[in-house]
Protein 1
Amino acid sequence: MHSSRAEPAASQPCFNGCFPSPFLASERTHKPKVNNVTSSHDDFAAATSSSLHPHTQFTNPDSLPSLHDSYISFTKAFPHFSATSQVDQIRAQEYHHLNHSNACFDYTGYGLFSYALQQRPCPNASIVSSSSSSSFSHFTPDASFFDVSYRSVNLQSQVLYGGHQSELEARIRKRIMSFMNLSEAEYTLVFIANEVSAFKIVADSFQFQSNRRLLTVYDHSSEALDVMIESCKKQGVRVLSSEFSWPNLGIQRRKLKKMVMNKRDKRKGGLFVFPLHSRVTGAPYSYGWMSTAQENGWCVLLDVCALKPKEMDTLGMLLFKPDFMVCSFYKVFGENPSGVGCLFVKNSSVSALKDPCNATNIGIISLVPASKPEAEQVVIETETAHLQEGPSSTSEIEELSTFFDSSTDRNRLGTKNESSEIQCRGLDHADSVGLLLISNRTKYLVNWLVNALMSLKHPHHENKLSLIRVYGPKISSFRGPAVAFNIFDWKGEKIDPALVQKLADRKNICLNSSFLRNIRFYDKNEEERVCEVEGLGMSKKTRSHESGIYVVTATLGLLTNFEDIYRLWAFLSRFLDADFVEKEKWRYIALNQKTVEV
């Protein structure tokens, strides 16, 4: 089957896969044919390596191929990328803040809303602008689509009995359950203020009884996890952590299996907290760990915050059915001003929760319609004043009557108009694209980025010292959409991740930083060498004796396009210039007429 490709105009080449494709129509029935997993992986790695053809190493930022040429090589290496053009159309139509000037690599959670829904038409804007000396935009930004109301309730009571909910909350609850592919007969969705609150509530509510153990699988520092650990320690719970092998940061399988099975202790189980891949390094983990934990009496909390949209559709989720799941709608496309966390509790696991005993869990919330924006009130007042002055025509009287009738209806109906205006567009977009295309798109983009980062080498160095060191998995068809890395100057000294973040911000590139921990070295000499080169630091949020590595992180989302990752690559290549940091410092001083610490 051949896809017909529309030729982009010569002056405006298309970099985002703007080609129609027959693969969209056959997504549900298309099953990739894989005869040999190893050979398939090798083929993918070879294709990724060829995506920068003809050059594989770059020692000068000016030697990088152009965006146009890079995109051509990219699509030759990954011809099926054009099948994801629907994502680019969605981004262009409803996520204008992501186009051209901004490149976001700090995606967290799932998308509920789009940027387009943050601005709704101002009622009769033409009347306002023509009849008033004040200038009004045709769109007025909403401060929030919904507000949150904190509830004084225990988690077990909330799961068993629920409570009053607005029509808005009922609609969003139903939409999220459908999106996550969960049945209300099996799971109860509890809205939580944020991810940190969700982890704490589970720790506070879980009945550890004789199985007073918490086992976590994280290769990085997490505020939510640290809060959970602190709560468990106060209850006398023993905290265990998986370790990760240097340098690929894969799980130390034997050690984790030993902790999960715990043959020496007859008291089986406890609480097992597990993500399907690292949100920092992109390292993938097997579903099988959930199965092994369940077979040995553990209750499983699955952290799905790092999953790509629609990954809840996978077969593994249907087979293993964790007791708890946490996801986040906090930092979403369009920046919904409220933001929520979602805690899913398996109905058959409610017995694992403590009885209420008049105790409440802080962080459980209800979703309520947002109060009327001030901008709309200003419009009403302006219209009222204009009406008192007297309309100039019969048609204007009719338009004003329509406006006030609709305003009165909105105020009178209250919750039911508000709820009908709520659209979970981000979820709708992910549904319309589907799991296969989302997974393929992010797989192609993140692996091209990893390959491109590793191609940057310092000039005039006998060993061709790499500018960038990537931590965790390198090129892999199984890796997650996150990359952890550090930049090293021509002398081999690490550049502070916070500085890299700051300089990226000036270029409107949003990165993040994190702290890798629980790293296990096989060789003492290797550990000493890494400590010397990496400058292993101490995390303020972790135990005083724990060391780790501060890193820069880039996370790709559903709407990430090729131009985004090219811009990041081009920006990071500037560090090949030994004077880049100093030049940026003096450039900032010249523009702002003040000194700055970088």
Protein 2
Amino acid sequence: MRPTASRTRKMSNNYNDIPIGIRLLQSFSRHCPRFHARKELCYKMSIFLLTFLAYTCYHMSRKPISVVKSVLHGNCSNAQLQDEGNCGYAPFDGPDSKALFGMLDSAFLFSYAIAMFASGFIAERVSLRYFLSMGMIMTGVFTYLFGLARTSNIHSLSYFIIVQIFAGIFQTTGWPGVVTLVGRWFGKKKRGLIFGIWNSHTSIGNILGTLIAAHYVEKDWALSFVVPGIIIGAVGFLLFLFLVDQPEIVGCQPQPDTQERRISNESDADNDDDEEQARRSEADQISYRSAPTERTPILPRSQASREHAATGRPIGLIDALYIPGVIEFSLCLFFTKLVSYTFMYWLPLYIQSSNSFGPTLSAYLSTLFDVGGVVGAIAAGYVSDLTGMSATVCTVMLFFASPVLLMYEKYGVLSLTISVSLLIIVGIFVNGPYALITTSVSAELGQHSSLEGNSNALATVTAIIDGTGSIGAAVGPLLAGLISSHSWEKVFYMLIVSDIIAMVLLMRLVIKECNTLRRSATRIRIE
């Protein structure tokens, strides 16, 4: 016998219990008619703010290493500095410092990329409140342990690498968790703009992490890690108290598109033709979907599969790869994230070495790249909503990113004003496609119509796309560490080539989007 919706909701309540903080708020608001009238809006705002705050903290805890590099390996050309012992912190005070920094970055990023695939698989099967809370608290612990090395006088390279590996593993709890929560609570209407505004947490987290680390870097670099570690742990506990995992838990309706699919899956078999037509109509509106594949369900249309879909059975990694667009956007994100994370981990050091600025000023200037990232994420999401052409929006921004990168490398050293202006522009065009793919596109593909109503694939699809991108994020800083020993100019050439490859990978989807737009325009003229 197929489980009913009420029985499914009951099982969900037993598994995803109401948080303690929400129970207290419910008891206080029992006699407040305004809360009950706007209950769903209040819960949506709480999800938006809590997930925004959570991923802000995740990125804040990643950023200190890029700032602290400048003091871990100091300028030892001055004999007085050598006598005072200010040449850096062993084992990073030698001539091989850039290679060691590259090893640290790779330890974090490769462990992050590999663990991301498993994390998305787990996130679909557990309570996201526990999943995110545990991940944030453990991330805080290992961020704290990196700073503890200075206060405990630890100089072992193995210690730093092990800390980075575990920090990378626990950081993977963040992205699949927060994207899935936002996807569950918000519908498709204006999704690009909502995700664009929401995704500014990445850049704001980078900015806060940079400012905190820069404040302590020349006084006591241990605090550059200790303070972010304490903050993310505290916010993780806050999520444990107040994060509502699913709308049904607190008596709210699921997002409209998800609810409609569940109702459709519980209808009789004689409605199959109408359902198929509805899916085809929806496919025409999603420009990057392949029309023939769109009509072929990924999950077989047997009675058993309908029951699994109705109860939200998570899909496997292989099934997710068959969703049209997942492979193209995953490979594109590999190269776009390579560029973004190379800036994230090496920009402060590049500014310091090319402009002869101090560590603090270089760190402050590097935040301008993230300021541009906020603007780029919102702009990309807004334009994507207007046009429905996500791949084309990404391609256009990548097209302009390459010459802007070249301009920054050539003219960014001429004056502070030019450097500031170009950094913001670079941030807009580099981070815009990256933000759009990891948010709106991932959420759309995770609720693709070929899933036959199974809306419980968000975390898996998000993990595949972001995990593939994270491999690029690991490769970029590693190559930058090796290439920068010879020339920073060659690093920029690597970034420009990466953007061009990312643009080429989306061309098939861009052509489909343009053909769809042309057919729509033709139909309008005929009518």
Protein 3
Amino acid sequence: MLEQLLIFTRGGLVLWSSCRAFGNALKGSPIDALIRSCLLEERSADSSFSHESYTLKWAFHNELGLVFVAVYQRILHLLYVDDLLSSVRQEFSAVYDPKRTVYNDFDETFRQLQMEAEARVEEMKKLKQSGRAPPVQSKKGGGGQRALTGSQRNGTKKGSSGGSTKDDSDGDTGNGRLVSNGVENGAKGSNKSPVHSKGKENDAPDTGAFDVNKLMMRSKTGKKSDVDKKSGPTKGQPKKAVKKKRVWDDAPKEEPKLDFTDEKGDEGMEREVAVIRGESMMDKEEVISSESEGEEEDEVEGAKPGAKKKGWFASMFKSIAGNNSLEKADLQPALKALKDRLMTKNVAEEIAEKLCESVANSLEGKKLGSFTRISSTVQTAMEEALLRILTPRRSIDILRDVHAAKEQGRPYVVVFVGVNGVGKSTNLAKVAYWLLQHDVSVTLAACDTFRSGAVEQLRTHARRLQIPIFEKGYEKDPAIVAKEAIQEAAHNKSDVVLVDTAGRMQKLADLSTVANARLIDGILLTKFDTIDDKVGAALSMVYVSGAPVMFVGCGQSYTDLKKLNVKSIVKTLLK
């Protein structure tokens, strides 16, 4: 049974509801959760949204700025919901007036539409049971023409013979995975291609990488095979640089010493700390260069060689539309090019596809002004979507939270988690250095009791920064070490405890014993200076986890920690 169908504007004004007391009828405010977690986060490409015991589905009317949401119990499988949403969308749009705020006369229309949708589903079930093929319905059909029967209406729908719709094929694309792009793309590729063994496939000709017939032909003609070419360097190619060997015995005096341990003592450490007392990049405002702002301008026909080139996006589509309603077919060429561009910037394919689908849903039905390109409209919509995703939805002022915890008489605890080798300990030291610059006392907790050398590494950072460290060696329970470190910090009136952990692949929810596990609160992007313009990993992580980027590590020194410039990231993704 349908719990509720709600119609409201994009501004939040509720126009009509099938349940009069909609504020009290549904538990847990599923509509608010849908807006907050799905629509505002550009996840409208998902087929449905689950919240507590409810499942929600939605439809848009972008030209009028209306949103239609259906809510029903998760345990039920209501097959008529999509058809009902389309019918309600068509009927309500016909009577919608921006000056009206009450539509009590729509109750009877809705009941009629619901009965017709249920009747169509029952008819399809009977056809399936009898072995007859059910009629194919298009996505645009809906239930607008109520004077016709179900079979007659299917015959009059536009594009009813066009096969299945996109919603039918994308039912399982809503489950995101926080995996690396290489693993994810590899998994997808393996589903599309057959499995080969030693260059051969079952019942297939020998067309692998090592074709025996080709090698025999090459040997007869006397030509050098590709394998032989790869075996040695060709003429004109520079030889690979050989690493210079260290001289262990009788080393010359000018050679640097091999012992890299610190022998400066306490006085030397004070001088070294004084040297690294530079201003952290977190407290500096990054200025975006405006040199390439005009790169997307159109190229004038007949321009001289050497003139400014037009952007990649504007150069591909020159179609101009005026006062025409956009359809998904019109948007597909621009969205395809935009998806490919995002993937070249290291955005995961699944996420790029969902973003493009979400942009298509937000533009479908809108009217273009005169001399307006579809490509520029799509790019503007994508830019706004990326800004909404990457901009934090809550305050990420750690210093304010630290002072709030201090007033409550407890230390502020930050736990660093992540896979092996991402730079947790190094960036933990950067965060500690930034906190010290703001007169915040810090204690380090060495809870990586698994990796060899982890405690010594954190001990070195603590000695250089002259801050206390709580450690209990290796092969100890990390949770117990962290608990005792927090107690010790509270006893010593320390403001912040930074907890270092071992690298693990599990997510936090996998090992939690409570129902509502606490997941990631924020993201620290490490080694950001090594990715050039492939910044799509930042978008992928924020989209999957929903957590904001709080710090960006961009070097090896303690000052190399800065904030994420959202506008700069969006500009890089779309340039």
Protein 4
Amino acid sequence: MAFPKPRSSSFATTSRTHMRTSGGTIDDSFLTEIKNTQNCKLSQKQKTLSCQFSIGDQLSPWPTYTTGQTILHNRKPCSYDYRKRAGSWQKQPLGITKPRYLEQLENYLRKELLLLDLSTDSTQELRLQVSKLRKNLAEEYLRYLSERDARKILIADLNELRYQREDMSLAQSPGIWGEDPVKLTLALKMARQDLTRTQMELNTMKANFGDVVPRRDFEMQEKTNKDLQEQLDSLRSDYEEVCKEHEILLQLHMTTLKERDQFHSELQEIQRTSTPRPDWSKCEDVVAGGPDRWQKLAEGKNSDQLVDVLLEEIGEGLLREKDFFPGLGYGEAIPPFLRYDGFVENKKPSKKDVINLLKDAWKQRLVEEKEKFPDFFFSFLEHRFGPSEAMAWAYTIFENIKLFRSNEVMSQFYAVLMGKRSESVYIKQKETVAQLLKEMTNADNQNEGVITMENLSTVLKSNFPFKKEEKIQELMEAGGWHPNSSNADLLNYRSLFIEDEEGQSMPFVQKLWEQYVDEKDEYLQELKQELGLELYDEVTLPRLREALTNIDPGLDRQTLHGYLSRAFQLPMTELPEEGEEKEEGIVVWLKIALERLRMTDIRRMGSREQEPPS
């Protein structure tokens, strides 16, 4: 490798001289010149080395081609003895030709030694001398900077002392001002002018800003004013709200007064015309089963319902006394399953047997829905009792379900059989009850048959999202929840869905049915108000469609067409599309349309505020 040639002691002398001549600062051009000189020599040596190594196309196989070797002794290459020996060694002829690569290497080393000129000092010593000199140069430079800064500070101190001495000498000369009265007169004149100007400015400031308050006081007052304004706005808003509430309360008070007067007059009329309230305890000795059975029958029923119960008990006794029923003939007004001439036998089944038979009929109906319900009922009796006994059982069951109106199973079957209610109402009610039981069972993670009241509330709200909060509480109270009880209380949910031996549901399912009937009536009443018609006014299909869409935007197309089909007694395939019907085309009395809708399963599908589905 190539070594940089060290500089002699003349370099240090030149550097010191240059530093002194330049006032103690190192010239950047001088350092750049030294760096460029070293880089130039290094590049020349690298070029020489690369050039010498590139001579020749092949490398000599030395020392493998001969057994003789020449070993260089361990001598300092820069010593005089080594150079003498090298000169004599070159002159001595060798018996074996030296390889070309070795000759090139020796020539390169010889030139490098000549360039380095290491006859006096070793390379390492010179390098330590090119580093010590640089260190000394830096120290001299720092010392120069310190001396320069100290000199400036000393000069400043000397100047300050000189100024102070001059001031003291002036102060100690008492007669210096007396020597120049013109200067004193001029100074007095200027001082008076300054005094006059200052007095005028002071008067102007007092005149302009005499009534001005400080900025701090102004900001504090401004903040106080802002707070008071906000309080005033809040109080004004509260006052307006109170005024509105007062007006509403006044209107409510007037309405209440009118209702009170009306109820008072009605009470007086009722007291004048009504008979005394009957003593229902008298029925305990008349009804079969005695007081215990009568208390069970009368529990939770009003007077009107008690009359129905009493009529059922009387009618049941009369019904069992009959052995035959007279046939009703073959008139068109007679239901198909009752068309018969002559007398038919009274089978006299028990109430429980009739209920079980009706339940079996409903199970069979859920499987077969091809024919109309009256025809299905007679076919069911033929299949169960045979063609010869079917008519007798039809009359027997019909008389029983017509009599026992207080029983859920019988009253619902009678309404569907006589066309007073669509069978979809019963099916939908059973599906709802089954869905509730399924979700409560899913909430019972431990399969212990109990859930918390909070679980019950969650299930009810998920299945009836449009029920009001008070309706949900009514269902929970019917299930056993009380306002004072905790939501963590456990409930035996399966007991909510059992039936007694007569098919009567528990209060929870009964309350669910009552709410369904009430919600249907509210829905139809809202539809009537939306139409703005009287009961005997005619309503067209487009107007009824629009009213249903307005009160229930959540109605889908299929359900809407089902309602219209039921109201106008038209097949769904014959209903005109929206925009194609004529205003005077299809009409029906509003009373009839509402009664037809009340017979079917109609319920709200969404809140009135939501957008209609696309």
